[in-house]
Write a structure and sequence with these properties.
This protein is an alpha/beta fold. The chain is built from 13 helices and 13 strands. It comes from Sulfurospirillum barnesii (strain ATCC 700032 / DSM 10660 / SES-3).
Length: 361
């Protein structure tokens, strides 16, 4: 019954004339579908802010973290296996529309579900790529099963950045890359994606159009890859899109004057629409990296950042509420105001909703 209702609502939205503005509540739910947000609790009740936001705005997704970024001694969302199962159960029960429950579980040092909390350990991408594809399949089957059993249906992985800069700390230094050669990266990333598909988990390729040649970390500030980036960094995306394995891609906050002389990738129409959509043929959902990262937050207001991102072709905005905090209400009100003023086209909101609805079904 729920699915029939969703389809009916979707048809109502998309059958409106392009110039017709939906009622305020309907518009805000369409915007809500475009958000993935973080929250602080490890246990939820009916009055928890994230539960109220999911129910009011029909959020597209949430992202889970094990610890607070500024205080690693404090548990945020993930303490143990049983606790996580209870948390995701409550999240799903609160949602009237399919909810993406997301996590960064690449393996190695990038893992929110850690062995110390009782979860299965996944090796880093570098370690996985040192072994056979058959072994990789075993590893990623175990990962996918663990995620599914704990109610997580979206993993921000695999990382398909090429390890082109040995001095890169955020990708190469953390062993997040499968290597320097695109075909090898695609082979191992493809194995992970196959395991995810078999367990009904959405995988997310990152960080488009390439972060592996950078010297800086976009968590901390402006990252310019103009002099280090090369077109070979597009090859993993080109191949995985052609193989129809790319249903969701995450943008990078890197600035690359070779692609856009004015904006970092997350805010760049030239990068996200002209290159990713039109040249590479990507038809899935494009999600931003965390909009609170300093590479964006240091230089753009909330209004400007979200307006540029959505207009560039980003379908879902990620606000992890780790590096900073912005209420879901403020984000939605800001976007709604921009839509009503014409700064963001209603067609862009509809387009994003169509892609998101297809992904979540």
């Amino acid at each position: 019954m729920r699915r029939i209702t969703l389809v009916f609502i979707g048809l109502f939205f998309y059958s409106l004339p392009l110039h017709a503005m939906p009622e305020d509540e309907a518009l805000k739910k369409m915007i809500g579908h475009m958000l993935i947000v973080g929250f602080e609790e490890e246990k939820l009740v009916a009055t928890s802010p994230i539960v109220e936001a999911i129910e009011r705005y029909e959020l597209g997704g949430v992202i889970l973290f094990d610890r607070f970024y500024t205080d690693k001694s404090r548990v945020k969302n993930i303490r143990s296996s049983e606790q996580l199962k209870a948390l995701t159960h409550t999240l799903k029960a609160s949602a009237k529309t399919p909810l993406l429950i997301c996590v960064d579980q690449e393996g190695g040092k990038v893992a929110r579900l850690k062995p110390s909390y009782g979860f299965v350990q996944t090796p880093s991408a570098l370690k996985v790529a040192s072994e056979s594809l058959e072994k990789a399949k075993e590893t990623y089957d175990a990962l996918a099963l663990m995620l599914r059993e704990h109610g997580i249906n979206c993993n921000f992985a695999p990382d398909v950045d090429l390890s082109l800069n040995p001095k890169n700390s955020v990708i190469v230094g953390l062993e997040r890359s499968y290597g320097t050669e695109p075909h090898r990266v695609v082979s191992y990333a493809g194995v992970m994606l196959e395991s995810f598909v078999e367990h009904n988990i959405t995988g997310v390729l990152k960080h488009f159009p390439g972060h592996g040649s950078s010297f800086e970390d976009s968590h901390l500030g402006f990252v310019d890859v103009t002099q280090t980036w090369s077109e070979v960094e597009l090859d993993p995306y080109r191949m995985l899109i052609a193989q129809e394995k790319a249903s969701m891609i995450m943008s990078a906050h890197v600035f690359n004057a070779k692609l856009d002389k004015n904006y970092p990738a997350t805010l760049s129409y030239a990068t996200n629409t002209l290159l990713l959509r039109q040249t590479l043929g990507f038809k899935g959902v494009l999600v931003s990296d965390d909009m609170h990262m300093q590479a964006i937050a240091n230089d753009y207001s909330l209004k400007d950042a979200i307006t540029l991102a959505i207009n560039s072709g980003v379908d879902m905005l990620l606000f992890g509420n780790q590096l900073s905090y912005t209420s879901t209400h403020e984000i939605i009100e800001t976007i709604a105001t921009q839509v009503k003023s014409g700064a963001i086209s209603l067609q862009r909101i509809r387009e994003a909703n169509t892609r998101i609805e297809h992904l979540r079904h």
